[in-house]
Design brief:
With about 120 residues, the protein is of the alpha+beta class. It has helices at about 20-40, 90-100; strands at about 1-10, 40-45, 55, 65, 75-85, 105-110. Strands 2-5-1-6 form a four-stranded antiparallel beta sheet, with helices on one face. A two-stranded antiparallel ribbon has the order 3-4. A hairpin with a 6-residue loop joins strand 3 (about 55) and strand 4 (about 65).
């Protein structure tokens, strides 16, 4: 089994009326329930788009916590799911189900291995 991140950037969502967004929530929740039933779900959730953002940077030797993102970017993370599945094809299948339910693209990335002493 391997853990995969399935995610989308907020900018991929597009402009839709409020009713459209409300109609997608139950569809996405149903996919998450299916993930749980299949035993592959680790976590899933959307991020608050306009909520507070902080960053922590210790590259100077001291930890500096500031308000706002670490770097200004054109795209920001909108939501994610983490699944534990046997192969990439399985992760891609779940990403496809989320893409259908949400109505916007999803990207799939494999997590690296944990250090031996973790």
């Amino acid at each position: 089994m391997a853990q995969y991140l399935i995610y989308f950037n907020q900018q991929w969502v597009g402009d839709h009326p409020e009713e459209w967004f409300r109609s997608r929530g139950p569809l996405a929740a149903a996919v998450v329930e299916d993930m749980k039933d299949a035993g592959v779900w680790i976590f899933a959730g959307g991020l608050v788009e306009d909520g507070p953002v902080s960053s922590a940077d210790a590259t100077s030797g001291e930890v500096l916590v500031t308000d706002g993102p670490y770097a200004e970017t054109k795209e920001v993370l909108g939501g994610l799911a983490i699944v534990d599945v046997p192969d990439r094809a399985s992760a891609e299948a779940w990403a496809g189900r989320l893409a259908e339910a949400c109505g916007w693209p999803q990207e799939v990335r494999l997590f690296g291995s944990m250090p031996e002493d973790a």
